[in-house]
């Protein structure tokens, strides 16, 4: 039986892979200089076109930025926003609901809160307190309700930014951004939601005290209860939003 012919890897792809390997194994940092086109040509015994193609591919991926002149290319720190946005756009087509998001959030937020213990500075606590104060102000306008709803999620993003595990940090911020999208796109801030707001503020205040005290059992219990409570409210809100949408739809047709 004939073996399928293995497609030879393009030399420019080999160079790209080699640069990524250096980032992982040599712990390179943003701002570090990469080999110049000439150095790549000599090292990989390739043409100028191939070296240029590799650098261009790395630039498209956001890993490097090239500067004009002989200085060559430098490593960039890749932000998470483009990847996060693309993933969220993909998930909007999967018709996610709050329950599916909270299935994951109930695990991630609890683990993250425990990891954040001892990582928060006085400035972090001040930012969390300012967030709670903003969410506690009585608000009647539609715009104000929307801002408060998003600020309640921002409380969790502030915690996430102090998480020492980068993967957990990304997942938590990603889920917060996903919920933010759902809140805005489904207008889930429109039904009056005093109970939900009061519950969120209550949990946030208790969580701050437990984090300050580095009380792991309390942090775990509070964050888990908070997530279960938020899921319950979110599901009810989505039901109400869907009913309002159908009523509106019937009214227009």
Describe what you observe in this structure.
The protein has 253 residues and is mainly α. It folds into 2 domains: 24-75, Winged helix-like DNA-binding domain superfamily/Winged helix DNA-binding domain (Arc Repressor Mutant, subunit A, Orthogonal Bundle), CATH 1.10.10; 81-252, GntR ligand-binding domain-like (Four Helix Bundle (Hemerythrin (Met), subunit A), Up-down Bundle). It is 70% helix and 3% strand. It has helices spanning 11-25, 37-44, 48-60, 81-92, 98-116, 122-136, 142-160, 166-185, 194-212, 216-252; strands at residues 64-67, 72-75. It has a two-stranded antiparallel sheet with strand order 1-2.
Flag low-confidence runs: none
Secondary-structure arrangement, i.e. CATH architecture of the largest domain: Up-down Bundle
Strand content: under 5%
User: If strands are numbered along the chain, what order do they take across the biggest sheet?
Assistant: 1-2
Based on secondary structure, the structural category is mainly alpha
Averaging pLDDT over every residue, what do you get?
A: 88
Q: What's the helix-strand series? A: HHHEEHHHHHHH
Basic shape: elongated
CATH fold field value of the largest domain: Four Helix Bundle (Hemerythrin (Met), subunit A)
Number of strands: 2
């Amino acid at each position: 039986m004939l073996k399928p012919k293995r497609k030879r890897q393009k030399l420019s792809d080999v160079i790209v892979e080699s640069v990524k390997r250096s980032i992982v194994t040599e712990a390179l940092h943003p701002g570090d200089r990469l080999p110049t086109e000439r150095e790549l040509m000599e090292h990989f015994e390739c043409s100028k076109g191939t070296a240029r193609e590799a650098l261009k591919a790395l630039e498209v991926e956001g890993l490097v930025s090239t500067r004009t002149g002989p200085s060559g290319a430098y490593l960039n720190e890749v932000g998470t926003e483009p990847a996060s946005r693309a993933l969220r756009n993909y998930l909007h087509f999967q018709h996610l609901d709050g329950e599916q998001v909270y299935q994951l959030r109930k695990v991630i937020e609890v683990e993250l809160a425990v990891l954040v213990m001892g990582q928060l500075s006085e400035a972090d606590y001040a930012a969390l307190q300012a967030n709670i104060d903003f969410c506690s102000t009585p608000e009647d306008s539609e715009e104000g309700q929307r801002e408060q709803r998003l600020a309640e999620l921002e409380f969790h993003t502030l915690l996430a930014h102090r998480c020492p595990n980068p993967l957990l940090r990304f997942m938590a911020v990603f889920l917060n951004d996903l919920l933010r999208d759902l809140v805005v796109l489904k207008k889930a801030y429109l039904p009056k939601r005093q109970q939900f707001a009061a519950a969120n503020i209550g949990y946030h205040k208790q969580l701050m005290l437990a984090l300050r005290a580095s009380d792991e059992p309390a942090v775990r219990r509070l964050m888990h209860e908070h997530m279960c409570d938020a899921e319950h409210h979110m599901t009810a809100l989505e039901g109400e939003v869907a009913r309002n949408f159908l009523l509106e739809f019937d009214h227009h047709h």
